[in-house]
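Tip: read the tokens left to right.
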């Protein structure tokens, strides 16, 4: 314990004297603060857009509700009162939005929220081709990605760890202080381990400070959640432990400071540039995703084919898919202006497009599953997956959202069909009890994240154990 205290006090004193190192730490800290600001600004922009949607929906909702008590003495009021409660009019004037609101800590790990839709317009004929939230975005920014705190932790903090640790032992050898300590009977192996531990604690404190500032900043936009924060801090700690374990492994090879720096930078390039590029190429080659235009073709072809179907066949298909309406079957269903025909058209089109969406989503889902399995060979990629999963900004969370939207789409169509096929209008009470979309969390997600964090810790422990088996002068 006295040796540990002595080494830590010595390292702290040396740190105060090294202005270049202090400037380097300050640079990374300021970079982290900027990344928090960037993520906060990005998240706030999406929240503002969602709030604007909800305010517009509530405004239109009040206008529709007011039409039930409109003044029928005027032509405008009479028209409004006549249209009150008509299902098609309600759906056209104020369509419902299925919103995927930013989750806790999204501002710290933006993930793919800048690319994937975060709300969807729900109607009997939902447009799955053109995203309703397609925003004009700088393509260069989309290509380079987001500068959020997850980027700083995954890509930049390992460079700080390398800069602080590469000469932990080699510097002692080059200055020949290792011999002096050996003569005095010092446990040189313990000294080097304590020196490296001091640097690890220093980087961890920096990472935790930035994370806590980011968590507080994110809590301003949403509420605080301690379990999500603990998972974030645990992931960051496990990832940085991996890098310091790697530093110790290469340091024990006994090379010069220049060689250690070269090896560690090569390791950084391998884990963060080369290996991800290779795995991505393998995944895309083994499971290519078809063009999105296939959905546009399916929408056009299905729309034309269903409308061109013989009326009787279309009506029979509707009753076959919805047997609860069989008692309403009449000969007038096949008339030119039959309500049942329009209901049958939208019902069958919705079923076919839902099937097309599910078929398309199988490809990115399969690709994501392969990438998740391959991420175990690269702790850096695994950490990025974990941080995105904690913040609910990854592809898996978006696919879960899409599946829930598809299920809610059917709920909405069934709800509106119930009124249209019975030729009924919605009452004011019915208007206040319209189906509402609620995003549900993925089941077993926290358990999977905890297991993955333990997996990262196991990799770090294995590297530490391997470093003790290397024969060196240390």
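Filled-in amino acids:
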């Amino acid at each position: 314990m006295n040796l540990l205290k002595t080494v830590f006090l010595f390292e702290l004193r040396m740190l105060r004297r090294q202005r270049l190192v202090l400037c380097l730490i300050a640079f990374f800290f300021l970079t982290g603060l900027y990344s928090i600001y960037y993520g906060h600004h990005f998240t706030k922009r999406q929240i503002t857009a969602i709030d604007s949607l909800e305010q517009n929906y509530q405004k239109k909702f009040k206008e529709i509700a007011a039409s039930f008590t409109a003044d029928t003495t005027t032509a405008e009021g009479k028209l409004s009162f006549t249209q009150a409660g008509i299902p098609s009019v309600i759906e056209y004037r104020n369509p419902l939005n299925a919103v995927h609101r930013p989750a806790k800590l999204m501002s710290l790990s933006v993930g793919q929220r800048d690319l994937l839709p975060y709300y969807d317009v729900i109607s009997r004929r939902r447009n799955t081709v053109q995203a309703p939230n397609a925003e004009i975005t700088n393509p260069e920014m989309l290509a380079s990605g987001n500068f959020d705190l997850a980027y700083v932790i995954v890509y930049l903090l390992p460079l700080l760890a390398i800069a602080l640790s590469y000469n932990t032992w080699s510097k002692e050898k080059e200055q020949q202080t290792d011999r002096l300590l050996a003569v005095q009977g010092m446990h040189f192996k313990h000294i080097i381990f304590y020196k490296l531990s001091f640097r690890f604690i220093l980087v961890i404190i920096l990472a935790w400070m930035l994370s806590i500032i980011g968590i507080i900043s994110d809590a301003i936009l949403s509420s605080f959640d301690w379990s999500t924060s603990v998972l974030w801090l645990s992931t960051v700690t496990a990832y940085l432990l991996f890098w310091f374990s790697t530093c110790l492994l290469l340091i024990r090879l006994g090379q010069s400071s220049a060689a250690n720096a070269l090896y560690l930078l090569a390791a950084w390039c391998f884990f963060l540039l080369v290996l991800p590029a290779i795995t991505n190429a393998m995944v895309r080659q083994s499971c290519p995703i078809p063009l999105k235009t296939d959905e546009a073709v399916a929408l056009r072809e299905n729309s034309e084919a269903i409308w061109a179907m013989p009326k009787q066949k279309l009506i029979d298909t509707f009753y076959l898919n919805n047997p609860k309406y069989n008692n309403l079957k009449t000969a007038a269903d096949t008339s030119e202006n039959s309500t049942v025909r329009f209901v049958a058209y939208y019902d069958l089109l919705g079923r076919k497009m839902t099937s097309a969406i599910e078929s398309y989503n199988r490809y990115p889902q399969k690709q994501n599953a392969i990438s998740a399995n391959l991420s175990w060979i690269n702790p850096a990629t695994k950490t990025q997956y974990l941080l995105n999963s904690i913040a609910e900004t990854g592809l898996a969370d978006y696919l879960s959202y899409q599946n829930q939207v598809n299920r809610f789409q059917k709920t909405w169509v069934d709800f509106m069909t119930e009124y249209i096929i019975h030729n009924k209008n919605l009452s004011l009470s019915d208007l206040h009890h319209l189906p509402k979309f609620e995003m549900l969390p993925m089941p077993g997600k926290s358990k999977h994240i905890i297991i993955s964090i333990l997996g990262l810790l196991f990799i770090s422990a294995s590297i530490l154990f391997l470093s003790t088996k290397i024969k060196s002068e240390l």
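DSSP finds 18 helices and two strands in the chain. The beta strands are 96-99, 119-122.
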